[in-house]
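For reproducibility, we list the full input for the adenosine-5'-diphosphate complex.
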Amino acid sequence: MPRRFLYYSNVLVRLLPEEDYPIYLEALAEALPIEVAATDATGRVIVWNEALAQAAGRRDDAVGRPLLEAMPWLTEDPNLDWAAVVDEVLAGGPARTFARHPLGPRVVRATIGPMRGQGGQVLGSVLSLEDITRGAREEERKRRRERADAVHDLGASLAHEIRNPLNALKLNLQLLQELLGDPSITKDDIHARTEKMIAESQRLERLVQHLLEVSRDGTLQLAPAHVDPLVEAVVAELEGVARASRCRVEFAPGSARELLLDPPRIERAAHNLVRNAIEAAAEGGGHVWITTRDDPHSTVIVVDDDGPGIRAEDRSNVFVLYTTGKRGGTGLGLPLAREDVRRHGGEIEALPRPGGGARFVVHLPPPGQAGDGVRVEV
Ligand SMILES: Nc1ncnc2c1ncn2[C@@H]1O[C@H](COP(=O)(O)OP(=O)(O)O)[C@@H](O)[C@H]1O
Ligand SMILES: [Mg+2]
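The corresponding predicted structure, in tokenized form, follows.
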């Protein structure tokens, strides 16, 4: 029979006297950080390296015994019939790897395959176990942490988004209560208040609807729309809030372009900007100015206020999740607004207002350059 050289035999033949191979191979097996066992053709252990001895018991107790007797925990593996796997390998079946296999309290990467002689006949099997318990646990912990973070983010954003209309609702109820104490109150006055409260309830309802959509599918629902009516609606929604802080909100509509928008999202973004502007505007009689216009490359919404403005070094921070300078603030308004606008292919910038205060500019791309949405025909 011709002598069939394997790669290592080939090299070693040139380097070493043949009778020294086993010593070198044994030294190699011993030096490996992974656990290695080998059996003869009948399945009895002939190699049991140092790493395996550390993890699974003394070599002297293992060598010469059937593999599964030397590793009783393999027999108790609820996920895999190791006896069948060993039989298959000894019958010349292919090598198999289990990339992430739970084994008792450990997680291992296990490989088992046939060991073949010069003529290709099966001489036995080689099993290697790499303990990845720590890495696997770390991965699991990371996944669990990410899930918890996502739930936390969603909880916080829900709280924020629900609080705005809820506040407005409460404010209008308080105003209504005051009105009711006034003997000169008319039905029209009451009607005007309740209309506002109905509008806020509808906003809550839309929000819940929107959240349902988001949780189902994150894509935008794009439809042809104009920004002016959306901004108009936001100004109306926030009228009560503005009045409560004696802030004058002026809106000068100036856009005629039809865009492809997901209207609730743009309205939500505008709502957050206008609310922030009202909250920042000069105390005891501040001003908020909102304008829209169609520039050649984008339709622009500008929200100005005469508050303290934002320092240059803080201007990019205000978009970072949970960054808030307010007592009871959530730091979610601007990050969510930016996310919504960017999803449309647009951008929000924070600038100083000429003459003092803050300026937020929303750029929305013309149709054809809109964001990652699904187009809805209306
Ligand atoms: N118009 C503005 N003028 C001054 N500061 C602002 C303005 N808008 C936002 N900010 C700053 O950015 C922070 C983050 O805003 P936002 O994300 O809406 O969260 P929140 O309003 O809950 O604090 C605010 O707390 C405030 O410090
Ligand atoms: Mg805010």
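Residues 1-5 have pLDDT under 50 and may be disordered. The two ends are 81 Å apart (CA to CA). Both points were considered when choosing residues for closer inspection.
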